Amino acid sequence: MRRGILEKLTVWFSWAAGVTLLSAVSVLLCFLLLKGHEALNPALIFGETPPLRALLLRERVFDGLFPAVAGTLSLITLSIAWAIPVGITTGIYLAEYAEGRVKSALDAFFDVLAGIPSIVVGLFGFAASVFLHRHFSGRIGPCLLISSIALSFLVLPYIIRTTQAALEGIPRDVRLTALALGATRLQNIFLVLLPKSLSGIMSGIVLAIGRCAEDTAVIMLTGAVASAGIPKSLLSQYEALPFYIYYISSQYTDPAELTRGYGASILLLFLCAALFSAAYGIRKGLTHFTLYRP
Amino acid sequence: MNHSADDNIKIRVSDLSFSYRNRPVLKNVTADFAENSITAITGPSGVGKSSFLMTLNRLWEDLPGASMKGKVEIRLQGRFRDIYDRSMALTELRKKVAMVFQTPNPLPMSIRKNMAFPLKLAGERDKTAINARIEETLRMTNLWDEVKDRLEDDARALSGGQQQRLCIARALILEPEALLLDEPTSSLDRGSTVIIEELLTGLKERLTILVVSHYLEQVMRISDRVLEFADETIVSG
What we know:
By secondary structure, chain A is mostly helical. Chain A is 78% helix and 0% strand.
């Protein structure tokens, strides 16, 4: 009898938890839409500039979010581009090659890395840019390159861990299949194990994209500014959506500006959603390509 | 020593001990296996039958926590070779000593690509040669007529018995000299089991076969010799 109640309570609790989560997300989305829907128009992104001329970089956008969108997109692309090769190869090393003490030492090390607060990573990136400015070239300062490298450190643990977990989760039979057919270890990793783990690895990359898109602490110390136009080079300062949201919410002068801040938040959500769907699309295509290629 | 009997030996195992995660699995196993014969290895589960098979193609080296002592010699291309010697390339050994697992394990690709996979690993690029090999091997395993019209289909769409025969065919495509099978029919129905048993009997003139099996009837039906494992060693055979 007692057991029956406990069982029912567990089910109820699980339901309640799920419903709470769903309502929290919907309340958040509704709140954002309610507050920001007025700002949702082409002018939010492009200001007074004709959209096509802005997209072709013919004309600079002054009172729109286009530079911030461009900045955030370049930041994500660069950070992920640094983090993917390092993260995946480290994950492969940990899952397939590291043993014993080296493995447990590295495991602990990456746990620590995962736990470092982003503001500390930002501070380190800032210190690094100051150091480079003094000792190498006066042209180097807080910039897109430094930000993206600092961010890639922040998201490395996600990619390493998901790669490692995906590889280690492959059942023994599958792991031995190609080896028993005369595959070398490397052939086995590239032809069987990695294609099998792609979806796991991709979920790590999706997490990393989300983290790069939202992080404010790192970029405000390493190169994001309120007004810079679209990023001109790796060594230039840039605008970013989360930084704009942070800036506008703390410095707004009239309700219209705050509405634009909400509009920027919605834009950031859309951007993330678009990137996630792109990542899932790539995953599907890639799995198909690696396993079924001619 | 009887010379003619010696001539007939394909695999010679001496003083083999094996342990997994510091637990002894096999102790001082010594055995010979004759060429072109089927040897059945039986015994209760957990006595090291599968481990024993893996010492013959060194597959255990890819399992963390396994260790082995002793000597295994296999006559490859007419010459006895210590397979644990430095001169023995691991990939070369596994091409010559093929293995089939308990659960059919086709890779998630088409039937043709599954068959071509070992050839591609070995560096074969000639498409015509690959296709000819595939047809020849599938005919040898009596699978050709069943799959010739659906070579591009996903191999996992085949029935369990067909999948296992495909795995046997895939293992045979590199023309191995010995074939190790770890309970190859334990996940199959009776009809498929009989087909695979007939297949193995037919293959024996080409190579040396070792098959781990739980089923006594099966052992009686197909094997020339039975080795019974218990308590970390061979108790009869």
